[in-house]
Write a structure and sequence with these properties.
The chain is of the alpha/beta class. It has two domains: 345 residues, no CATH class; 121 residues, no CATH class. The protein has 20 helices and six strands. A six-stranded mixed beta sheet has the order 4-5-3-1-2-6. Strand 4 and strand 5 form a beta hairpin.
Amino acid sequence: MRVRYSPRWWLYLLVLLAGLRLVVAGILPLSPDEAYYRLWAFAPAAGYLDHPPMVAVWIRLGMLLGGDNAFGVRLVGVLAGAGLSFFVFRAVRDLLPDAGRAGGVRACVMLQATLALAIQSVVITPDMPVMFFISVLLWAMGRVTAGAGTGWWLVAGLAAGLACDSKYTAILPVGGIGLWLMVRGLRHRAWGLRQVPGVVGGVVVATACVAPVVWWNARHDWASFVRQGGRTADWHPGRAVQFLTELAAGQLGLMTPGIAAFFIWGQVVALRHARRGGGGALLSCMTLLPACVFMQHAMGDRVQANWPVVIYPMLAAGTATVAWRWGRWAVGGGVLVGALVYMQALFAPLPLSAHTDVALRQMAGWRDLATRIADQARPGDFIAACDYGTAAELATVMPGRVVVGMEPRWALFNLPHDVSGDGIMVCNPRRDFDRDVFVSVRQVDTLVRGRQGRVAERVALYRVSLRTDLSPAQRSAIVRLPTP
């Protein structure tokens, strides 16, 4: 019985999960968003319309190591998903010293067993970089609370800056640190005064990391800040119950029910420790401030299920001091759910529709679709798409072809604009595209994308001829996308 609880066995589980995720990451086709982020790696910039640039840096590094394929695109994300366990473990040691070594290992296993990490470890999005750097930040702040020296504020500033370079939601747990620092500084003024030089240094380092993103936004009419900040403009308080229910259901799914119970109980325990100050108070501030912001946002607008993953490292750390009687069942349930999701994504044993099967809806049938599009194209034709996800996917699976993006967002990319002549426009019938940039538009076919007889989506093909007298604004939104 004692072997079952041994930290060594939990470490074996972590290694097994990392190996499994490397295999899955190499087999699964890229999703449209991943294919889109892959294009970022070929157009280096200090910012992009949707997010800061860190995910592009990771993908570029992964492709240098693993090649321009699904494995290379996801490689750094898989390794980071495993590596963040080290920082969570070390953070628990400093923030919750009573938990011991076993508590730190259990916190890591609890985090790794969530469905969120199972997905984010094999599908590269900005969520994995932000979770990784928040874990590093948590470790550095644990060193600060343990009295390791004010120099650790510089490490914390670096981690906070890199987290904000990954996703803007990182500012929320960073704000939690500010809240903790203010409260503790007021209660222990001598301690607070000793931290001032370190805090100032950390702020300077974090600002230096974030400055390129701010500079890029300033040069592009604050496009990324406006896009993300503009979400608060669409406010529907009458739908608050629906949005709050969706938020709760999404988190229950991404945590898995058993782990969600441990996460909640861990925060209760952390709050009890917070009364004595130290690590429990810091964990509570870094978790509850973002949680309150997400709940406030859900009072009038939808909170995407993946947004709160930024606080999962703190939630996991909080479970280190929770009684472990049912812990192995929660972990086992989480691992089982993750394994079932992988099995469905790889082999589709259940006859689910595209509405419920995310892998079918996003990843299935792109190569077959590309082959049938190529059959309709003439030599020298370009292949265009009316949405960025489809354009990015076709650029991934149609090597040797001229694949074109045609949306205003492409004007923000440093990509070639030398596109002319005739081509094929691929567009979902529920969408539309700017027909003013073409001399002629004629629908030639409708194709189905899917697998095993299950339909992911239908797309219409149009034969188009690009105008030669495009305005500079129209020309800037038409780019040639990099293909393998």
